[in-house]
Amino acid sequence: MGVEEDPTNRRPHGLAVPGAADTFPSMSGLPPPSRAETSPDMLAVHSGLVAALTPAERACRMRDLTLGASMMAMAGLRRRYPGAPEAELLLRLAVLRLGADVVERAYGWRASGRDA
């Protein structure tokens, strides 16, 4: 599956709301600075921008963050288990999210050996 470029916001994953990266620079996918490093005025600006988002835009942001977290987790699993098939990696991702007992009950799978 190829990655399509979204010309409206120049973000390679193409999942963001068009133009959002230009309109809301703090929503560019990078974590915001910690509150200790951020002035109260800038926190107010950030809060205002977030408050102005529609429910659909907020859902899109959450989807983007969730997808990014899943992609990072899968990259870590691929690195840790380089020869594992995709199905096993997805089960291992489920274990990270749900726990080994839930995955075993739901899918009948449990990691073997020291990875269990």
Q: Outline the low-pLDDT stretches.
A: 1-27
Taken in chain order, the helices and strands follow as HHHHH
**Helical fraction:** 55-70%
Arithmetic mean of pLDDT: 78
Total count of helical runs of at least 4 residues: 5
Radius of gyration: 19 Å
Largest sheet: none
Net shape: elongated
Percent range for β-strand residues: under 5%
The number of E-state strands comes to 0
Could you characterize the architecture of this molecule?
With 116 residues, this protein is mainly α. The protein has helices at residues 20-23, 40-52, 55-80, 86-98, 100-107. The protein is built from five helices and no strands. The longest helix is centred in the middle third of the chain and has 26 residues, at 55-80. It starts with 19 loop residues before the first helix and ends in a 9-residue tail after the last helix. The relative contact order is 0.08. The model is unreliable at 1-27 (pLDDT under 50).
Summarize the structure.
The chain is mainly α and 116 residues long.
Q: Which descriptors would you attach to this protein?
A:
mainly alpha, 116 residues, disordered N terminus
How would you summarize the topology of this molecule?
Layout: H1 20-23, H2 40-52, H3 55-80, H4 86-98, H5 100-107
Helix pairs in contact: 3-4, 4-5
